[in-house]
Design goal:
With 188 residues, this protein is α+β, with helices and mostly antiparallel strands. It has helices at residues 34-45, 54-69, 86-96, 106-112, 119-127, 155-165; strands at 4-10, 13-20, 23-31, 104-105, 140-141. Helix 4 packs across helix 5 (119-127).
């Protein structure tokens, strides 16, 4: 059962988190307007906006930091997964283990789940992810570095904005600088 939610501003727009006594139950990725985020949260959870308890305030600060620097790790944030299917609990644990700036493919995640044929289920489970960006589904790509789908507001554009913020490589193609030798400081 959800106790409340909070709407907050980040460097990329307005976000929200909802929580229960057991942990965060939902998140919303950045959107341009505060009113739209609040309306979506009220529609889903009711008129229960409140001051966050310490664990939720920590989660909000973490999301704000990630949206500002692209390097903040959110894997420590307490989640309430009581309503989550067991396979998706495993999927979200794998996604949470992907550090900022790194990516995996749907197939790689499926293999980590123990069955490479689960790639489509990985996509479905990520589409149901109630915890963005704490469960960083944006860090999971289709084969060959293609973005794959993204069901959050803003779609693939939001996914790419988050990956760019984290300076993540989204392709296996070499970059302009891959063949350059590492710079060595001149001797004095």
């Amino acid at each position: 059962m959800t106790n409340a939610f909070a709407v907050f501003e980040t460097a990329l727009g307005w976000c929200a988190l909802a929580w229960s006594e057991a942990g965060v139950v939902a998140g919303r990725l950045p959107q341009p307007g505060e009113a739209g985020v609040r309306a979506a949260m009220v529609k889903r959870f009711g008129e229960v906006e409140a001051e966050p308890p310490p664990f939720a305030a920590d989660a909000i600060a973490g999301v704000q930091a990630l949206m500002a620097d692209g390097t903040t790790d959110l894997s420590h944030i307490q989640l309430d997964m009581a309503a989550i299917a067991p396979l998706h609990v495993q999927l979200y644990a794998i996604a949470r283990a992907i550090p900022p700036g790194e990516t995996l493919t749907y197939g790689e995640v499926a293999e980590r789940l123990g069955d490479k044929n689960l790639a489509r289920e990985v996509g479905r489970g990520l589409g149901l992810n109630p915890f963005p960006p704490i469960v960083p589904c944006h860090r999971i790509l289709a084969a060959s570095g293609k973005t794959g789908g993204f069901s959050a507001p803003g779609g693939v554009e939001t996914k790419m904005k988050l990956l760019n913020l984290e300076r993540a490589r989204t392709t296996t193609a070499p970059s302009l600088f891959d063949d350059l030798p590492l710079a060595v400081a001149p001797r004095r």
